[in-house]
Amino acid sequence: MPQVSLTALVAHAKAGDRVISFPTDTVPALAVRPDRADLIFATKQRSQEKPLILMAAAPNDLWSFVQGDVEAQQIWQQVAARYWPGALTLVLPASDRVPDAIHPTDPTTIGLRVPCHPVAQAILAQTGPLATTSANLSGQPPLETMGAIAAQFPEVMLLLPDELARLTSTSSVGEVGANESASGVPSTVIKWSNSTWQVLRAGAVKLEI
């Protein structure tokens, strides 16, 4: 299994030549440069009717990927300020900056999230926004450990254990340490539709909107 340094992992993510994986605050993610989202669909054996989401280190890294009137954008940003970083995915109208590869069958919307996890934050701060999804074969439960991901996806790039230890500030990294601040519960997903929010998936965040 390809376990590499943070520098190497970021370099491959930027090059768009490999799918990478890292822990998040919900379940571990598979991630790739947005315009190479086809690599994730192939790796997961995922239907192209199921979109990926854009994950970034900060809200300001994501707003250029959506479009809406001033009032709507203010509402989106207020919700983001309240729940990000965190386990909430916002599905919003996509701008023309979103590559079609992320959602080939419906390019009109895009899911956005800022994770609350030191490893995810460290990677995304250097790569910029990445197209992401949970680490599992399509239709199967999300994998929850780096070891399980390595076994299921031997071609996916992971961080070296000592890099995980350094970034999570744990004294020992095993299956628990690498994923210690993850809930194991997928993110809550809400969609902006007809000037209101629609809950698409109940998850880790209990909303007050």
Please give a structural write-up.
This protein has 209 residues and is an alpha/beta fold. Helix content is 27%, strand content 20%. Residues 170-180 have low confidence and may be disordered. Helix 1 (6-15) crosses helix 4 (118-127). The chain has helices spanning 6-15, 38-44, 70-83, 118-127, 146-152, 161-168, and strands at 3-4, 20-22, 29-32, 53-55, 88-93, 109-113, 130-134, 158-159, 188-193, 196-201. It has one domain: DHBP synthase, CATH 3.90.870.10. The strands form 2 sheets. The chain has an 8-stranded mixed beta sheet, with helices on both faces. The protein contains 6 helices and 10 strands; from the N terminus they run βαββαβαββαβαβαββ. The chain is globular and about 45 Å long.
Name the assembly state.
Answer: single chain
Q: Predict the CATH topology.
A: DHBP synthase
Mind telling me the CATH superfamily name?
DHBP synthase
- The number of distinct helices, counting runs of at least 4 residues, comes to 6
Structural class: alpha/beta
> Spans of 5+ residues with little confidence (pLDDT < 50)?
170-180
- Architecture, according to CATH? Alpha-Beta Complex
Distance between the termini: 43 Å
Topology as a string of helices (H) and strands (E): EHEEHEHEEHEHEHEE
Strand order of the largest sheet: 2-3-7-4-6-5-9-10
- Mean pLDDT, all residues: 90
**How many β-strands, per DSSP?**
10
Helix content: 25-40%
Query: How much strand content do the residues show?
Result: 15-25%
Q: Tell me about the largest β-sheet.
A: 8 strands, mixed
Number of domains: 1
CATH class: Alpha Beta
- Shape summary: globular
Could you tell me the radius of gyration in angstroms? Answer: 16 Å
